[in-house]
Structures are given as structure tokens and as C-alpha cells.
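Q: Could you predict the 3D structure of Phosphonate transport system substrate-binding protein?
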Amino acid sequence: MNKLLAALVATTALAAPALAQGEITEFRLGVLGGENAQDRMATNQCFADKIADALGVEVKVFTPADYNGVMQGLLGGSIDAAMMGASSYAGTYIADPEAVEPVLTTQNIDGSIGYYSIGFARTESGIESLDDMQGKTFGFGDPNSTSGYLIPSVEISEAGYSMEPGDYFSDVVFTGGHEQTIVAVNNGDVDAGVTWADGLGNWEDGYNNGALRKAVDAGLVDMNELTQIWQSEIIPNGPFVIRQALPQDVKDTVTEILADMWEEDAECAYGVAAGEAKDFVPVTHDHYKSIVAARESVINN
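A: Sure. Here are the predicted C-alpha cells for Phosphonate transport system substrate-binding protein:
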């Protein structure tokens, strides 16, 4: 496991002092990895435009290659806000509890605020469960992803399947993100992988919300050619976070824009939420204490 954890624990250096309270001259919106940068930029530009109109400053959208880039940007002050996964938020909090504050999360169509890590394989492979994965290659997205690594690595290990490459699985690899995992499985580069979904709606649609839905919308996969082989326990939807050092009126304005988005611009909200959802609703750090504990446990083992 040490090889897999190296990227997970090599995070959290502060890059620059936080912006002092007062007037801002620009606002920097970060977007986590998981799909190509052009798509991430396109689906979040409408949100950036709304922030620019409300604050009267230029808004820049940053799409780092991996989750750690957004984490470091928030810690160092070069990114002001981002929609994060629960584990990437936990890693940021562990590094500096006063760096960011979670303010909103996605509420699913059924009113819940959770999602799942989903294991999947090509249907033609004949793999139907983890019992069929002995001697096979398992793909994970990013070491700072909740559903793409943290939760499945813990739960699959607890179920009795060693995560040490070569023990049960022939190899355990990082693909670089959710979209990359989906493409890798679809192309046969790995035998199975994990990604995230709300678990609602139909499999053939990639469920209602999540990385599979985005892949279907982008025409990357036909879900009828994929089979679900595993599902985690429910995970709290990741938070939209804002740097604590920003002026309070700026934080309030940006939070209100996102909170009202499903009512005022459902098309923009669909892109920000990665699919169908009901609303963006308030959360606090308390919602993520279990994920912080899980991340600390993995780092310390």
C-alpha cells in the first residue's frame, strides 16, 4: 500500500500567504480534475460569468491537472473557491483547518445529499463482481478522490481483497481522474475501475448525476457495454468551499449565486452539478468529519 499512498500524503504545502480582508481585484474559481480541461472550463464558465457580474471583477477559472492542484491553490491563496470531493476537502482541512469553509453541497433529486463509489467493468469481460477480479487490473482515478480512491480502497480492503498490487489484483493503478478511468475501462486498458454516481435513475443513462452521466452526455461510453460490479456505502456529496480569508460580503455573494442556481439557471446548474440534481443546499464541516477521520486513518496506516 505504501506505493499507492505516496501521492496521497505528498500534499498540503502552503504556497503563499492568504489574501488580507478588504477589496478584491479578481476572483479565482478552481475546478477539480476528472475530465479534460476544456470540458471543465466550458461547464463552469457560466458560473464564473455570474460571479463576475455580481462582484464586478474578473473571474478566472483554473483547471489543474489533478485534485492536488486545486487543494494547493486553496491552501496557498491562488484559488478562492471550488467544488471539491469530500476527501480533497478533508485533505485541505487536515493541512490547514482555517484555509477554507464548506458552504454548499449538491442535493440529489430524491432530497438526499450522498453518492456512491461505483465499480464497473466491460460487460464482454464476464466480470460481474470483485470475486471475478483476481489477477485482473483495477483502475483508480486520483489519490485525493473520495470515490475514486479513498473510500473504495478502505471498503474493498475491509471486504478481504488486498489492495497491494500483485496480491489479489494483478495491479492497482491510478488513471488520473474519473473520465480517464471510464475511458480506460471502456477501451480495455484496465479490467475494471471505480468512479462516482448518485445511484439514482437508470444505469443506461449513467444514473442521474456523476461521472458516468457526464461520460454518457459527452458520448464517451454506451452504458449497455458496461456492468456494475461493486458499490460503496453512501458517501456525503462533496462541498463547494470558499477561502475563509475572503471578505464576508464576497463569500456571501458567491454562495448565494450557487444556492439560487437551480431556480434561476438550470442549464448552468446541470453543468456545475455534473448532471441532474434538485438544489445546492447548506453544509458545514460536521458533514465531513467521518471523511476526515477516514483520510487520517489511511495516511497513518
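Q: Anything worth pointing out?
A: The first helix runs from residue 2 to 9.
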